[in-house]
Specification:
The complex is a heterodimer of chains A (300) and B (487).
Chain A (H helix, E strand, L loop, with lengths): L7 H10 L6 H13 L3 E4 L6 H12 L2 E6 L6 H4 L1 E3 L1 H11 L6 H8 L5 E3 L1 H7 L4 E6 L10 H9 L1 E4 L3 E4 L5 E6 L7 H6 L1 E4 L5 H11 L5 H15 L9 H13 L7 H6 L1 H4 L3 H12 L14
Parallel strand pairs in A: 1-8, 1-9, 2-5, 5-8
Antiparallel strand pairs in A: 3-4, 6-7
Helix pairs in contact in A: 1-2, 10-11, 10-12
Chain B lengths: L5 H19 L6 H11 L7 H12 L6 H12 L21 H4 L1 H11 L6 H14 L2 H16 L9 H12 L1 H15 L6 H34 L1 H8 L14 H27 L8 H8 L20 E7 L5 H13 L6 E7 L3 E3 L1 H4 L5 H11 L11 H12 L7 E6 L12 H9 L2 E6 L13 H5 L4 E4 L3 H10 L2
Parallel strand pairs in B: 1-2, 1-4, 4-5, 5-6
Antiparallel strand pairs in B: 2-3
Helix pairs in contact in B: 1-4, 2-3, 4-12, 6-8, 7-8, 8-9, 8-11, 9-11, 10-11, 11-12, 13-15, 13-21
The chains are: A alpha/beta (300), B alpha/beta (487).
Chain lengths: 300, 487
Amino acid sequence: MDSRFDSPDAVRSRLREVDYLSDDAIAGVVFLADRLGKPILVEGPAGTGKTQLAKSVAEILGARLIRLQCYEGLDESKALYEWNYKKQLLRIQAERNNESTWEDIETDIFSDEFLLTRPLLEAIRSDDPVVLLIDEVDRVEIETEALLLEILSDYQVSIPELGTITAKQIPMVFLTSNNTRELSEALKRRCLFLHIDYPDMEREKEIVLTRVPEITDNLADQVTRIVRSIRQMELKKSPSVSETIDWARTLLMLGVESITEADAIDTLNILLKYQSDITRATKELSADTTQRRPGVPRTS
Amino acid sequence: MTIAEPSQSSMLDLLTGFIVELRAAGLPVSLSENLDAMNAITHIPIEDRNAFKYALAATLVKNNAHWRAFETVFEVYFSLRGPAYSLGGGDEPLDLADDDTAANPEAAGAGSGGGGGEALTPEQMAEMLFKALQQGDDAMLRALARQAVTRYAGMEPGRPVGGTYYLYRTLRNLDLDNVLEKLMSEAKDQAPAPLTPLEERLEQDEFQSRVDKLKQEIESEIRRRLVADRGVEAMAKTLRKPLPEDVDFMHASRDELMGLRKAIYPLTRKLAVRLARKRRHGRKGPLDFRNTVRHSLSYGGVPADPKFRYPRPAKPEIFVIADISGSVAAFARFTLQLVHAISGQFSRVRSFVFIDGIDEVTRFFEGVEDISHAIHRVNTEADVVWVDGHSDYGHAFEVFWEKYGREISPKTTVLILGDARNNYHSSQAWVIKEIRKKARHVYWLNPEPKAYWDTGDSIVGEYGAHCDGTYECRNLRQLEKFVEVLE
């Protein structure tokens, strides 16, 4: 199989061309996934660019992105394939007057023409390059996960009536998870694991500068430093990268050149989505730094 | 795949030892993952240490909570090696990844600059450190970390002391708290206008992160030298740390407690989802007669497809009675936090805390979004001391029975948390017996290892006789398992 990338650095620079700033881990794992022909399981807090990674990889490969959004109750007929039952019925009725045998009809109605492909099968059968994104895989029940196993390890789908359909080319596969439940060992074993965390300050600043081109260097610097400070607090939900970007845009629109305490507190609701978090951050941002440590629990 | 080539056999040995150690540290590494890792490293340039690390991580570590354990083991097995790190000029059996001179010439330049600094006085060194921290000069910091370890740690070959001892000695000499303060006051002086609290906070965060980086450098420097001195296996064993879910509540260090607090929120979310799913699935409500008849019409009046009512299982009401005296405070804290965070899964949660007196603390949790704040109030405001502030389960239970006993109903599940170390007071176990008669279930969660139960002043057996179950709950894993079966 031809490999798509020459080195981890090549992945990194090509991702940068489409405005996705990766780091060593991301580039390394994408590179390996291509070489080993394995899916990537991407985990991490919401809004750190898990789904965007799949989109960006599709973009640099010039591949079509096929997306399967997972939800509770997802089943075979929505994920893999389904027989077009109504069309089959029509076919049988149309056949009534003719003299065709039972076998003829049977082979006929269980053929490609009556097969409705769903995302997973579509990704396998596609002739042109595709990137398959299985989004929020932790939302399906643990039993449904088994549906994915065959396709993830062997890149094939078995349809009892048709036989096994094998992939013409091995697609890049990304699975994302918000970690609301532990995924099964069987699934994890088949994937490379990539945890995308909040980026460090330099990378986040770069991201802000790329995504909000009109922003000044100084403001971007301030934005990321305040966000880092907020992430260190004990919050229900820390600000995500996309929220950082939104915040930077807002400040820009408000014509802020240098963030003061009041600016920060007034616009906190863009970064934080829980009232208790906002209250806490407001208190801490305006509090004196000397008394930042919370009290220790009493012992007896 | 040609992993058995002679040139790679030493690599293979090292990797095998590495994986054995990962398993010993508690990471579940399967055989196929092992093969994947071996396969993966044939694809990456071996001199690229970062790529090597991520290749191993992606194939071997499938849970982010295990990352720290992985990093420690990785550093021990594949840390920078070379003559510069040996303590007593000992030989160097492994030559996997070179000294960072090759990988990072810039750092090497700075390193030799620092190396020439043997003659520096401590004052000069402190001055250099201060400058490096102020300017955030990473290469310089690395060189200084190395210097500081050479100078202050006092490491001797073969001395059987743990790494923390050397770390403590080095840090004590550097006095980083003072340096941080000096950095802050300098920053304040240099600023054109007085700093606002926000700016001050940001400055401090910046310096703090640099100081943390320095500490990490020092720590890994010490680790490297210890590995060079004692060999890989011995070091890996001494550095082995429990995974967050295995940390013992009663003996957790401050760092570990921080880790636990971070781990508990995602855990509650997970549990809530799981409990809600369990409630929805796996049970069917009673037969819905009308619906079944209506659907039978399409089968010519045959009820072929029975319909059931939407299941509405009763949610239990939970009473948590927790001992919050010093020895078990951390355990009580985590359990209260966990139970309240998933309170949506119960019809009501009421909490009581005691030491030798007992107080209801439900009010602290009501309408509060921030549970850790509520816990803090429980710890500071609840009225739990009756005589001397030593645990007295008997008295606490007696008062509980008097005050709240009649509010226990057949829907109530009672959880009692504590080590049952009663300081030789009378047990009043009859209260538990009475509670059990009225309640749906009574469970006792004990944070002590089972082997210690009923030794000394522990009388958990006496109480346990009247409970539906007594459980050992020493870590998050056990706690999670218990909550999942709770009903």
